[in-house]
Amino acid sequence: MTLQSIKYERGRLQILDQLLLPDTTRYVDVKNSEDGWQAIKKMQVRGAPAIAIVGCLSLGVELYDKTFMSVSDMQSFVTEKLNYLVTARPTAVNMADAAARFMAFSKTLADGSLSPGDAKIRLIEEFESMLEKDIATNKLIGKFGGEDILSRSGSKPIQILTHCNTGSLATAGYGTALGVIRYLHEQGKLDQAFCTETRPYNQGSRLTAYELVYEKMNATLICDSMAALLMHQKNISAVVVGADRVVSNGDTANKIGTYQLAIVAKHHGVPFYVACPLTTYDGSKKSGEEIVIEERPAKEMTTVKGINCWNPAFDVTPAELITGGIITEYGVFPPSKLKEELAKYQNDKL
Ligand SMILES: CSC[C@H]1O[C@H](OP(=O)(O)O)[C@H](O)[C@@H]1O
To answer: Where the protein is mainly located, per its record (predicted)?
Structure first.
């Protein structure tokens, strides 16, 4: 049993309010796309895949109660709301990826073969399919990543360092980078998982530590500033992190602090992996220079009034530092091969 960030039945969506974890477990209703936008913006729900899923399901719940005079009216409404949901947070690509796919899908529904009511249900069904697809994707990522790490580690104890939260609280379940740790644990091969606090939102100390303890994995929390000494003193088998947007050359935007972990891993010869589902790949961008980095409010970083704060929520790790490879649901690829490999599967999206 893993923690459930999203509770959904047709017509009703609830999210676990992650601002209150780990002290309080409270599910809040998301009744429409405005609620969805607010929940994403405030980071009550966060994590690239979860953002896309909650955004689309919030629209699905809104659609469920609405009646349209024509399919094209529904299509216009859906387009407007999907474009709005994309504006909640700029760095993760998953919501924009889903919006593009579902806007294209809603166009196919306007071929005259369906009534507005039937077309609406078809679209809601596609939104709903994201939940199962995401979990299946994450389990493949877990297996491919876990097996790749085991193939490199011989008989040495498997100790993994991860950053931020990429587990059941960032996805529909199982997780991406944390899915790799889950797989190793399920195989009885995980000796130790280390997680960073991940200042300033503390996704690591509040969310990942919560998930690891909840599932009784052997886990140790470190401050972000301890990562270099950890890799110097302990035999870390690999660093495995998630992603918010991976672009054509393999450059990766992820939680702030990822870039410096990659530099330290390179210095210590520790393989550095990025776990990235196809929905987090953005082939429209050539390099990480093109990725918009979200800056969050100073109040999320300090209580001291009057001090200036610089609070970028993400940084970009250049492809050459991703030495272990990019773990996808199709396999583990060197960054230089990612574009050509993922091009084979673009049709797997909706
Ligand atoms: C499953 S990867 C999630 C990805 O999103 C996190 O960012 P945030 O908590 O601000 O949404 C972090 O970058 C994770 O790697």
So the answer is: cytoplasm
Q: Is the pLDDT of residue 248 over 70?
A: yes
Residue pair 150/191 in contact (Cβ under 8 Å)? The answer is no
One-character DSSP codes across 168-196: TTTSSSS-SHHHHHHHHHHTT-EEEEEEE
Put the strands of the sheet holding 12-16 in their side by side order: 6-9, 12-16, 27-29
Cα 313 to Cα 290: distance, rounded to the nearest angstrom:
16
**Residue numbers annotated as active site:** 244
Q: How far apart are CA 144 and CA 117, in angstroms?
A: 41
> Who's near 122: CB < 8 A, 6+ residues apart?
109, 114
Distance 130 CA to ligand 1 centre (A): 18
Strands 158-162 and 27-29, by their bridges, are: unpaired
pLDDT at position 347 = 82
How far apart CA 86 and CA 100 sit, in angstroms, is 10
Q: Is the CB of 206 under 6 A from ligand 1?
A: no
Distance CA 324, CA 211 (A): 25
Q: What is the 171 CA–ligand 1 centroid distance (Å)? A: 9
Q: Is 197 exposed, middle or buried (0-12, 13-18, 19+ CB in 10 A)?
A: buried
Which of 46, 199, 273 maximizes ligand 1 atoms within 8 Å of its Cβ, making it the mutation to test the pocket?
46
CA dist., res. 279 & res. 27, Å (int): 26
- For 163-191, write each residue's pLDDT tens digit: 999 999 999 999 999 999 999 999 999 99
> For tokens 């009511």, what's the residue?
117
Q: Cβ neighbours of residue 125 under 8 Å, at least 6 residues apart? A: none
Shortest-distance atom of ligand 1 to CA 46? 11
Instruction: Report the distance separating Cα 183 and Cα 91, nearest Å.
Output: 28
Q: ipTM of this model?
A: 0.98
Are 281 and 101 in contact by the 8 Å Cβ rule? The answer is no
Tell how far the Cα of 12 is from the centroid of ligand 1, in angstroms: 25
Q: Give the integer Cα–Cα distance in Å for 260 and 282.
A: 23
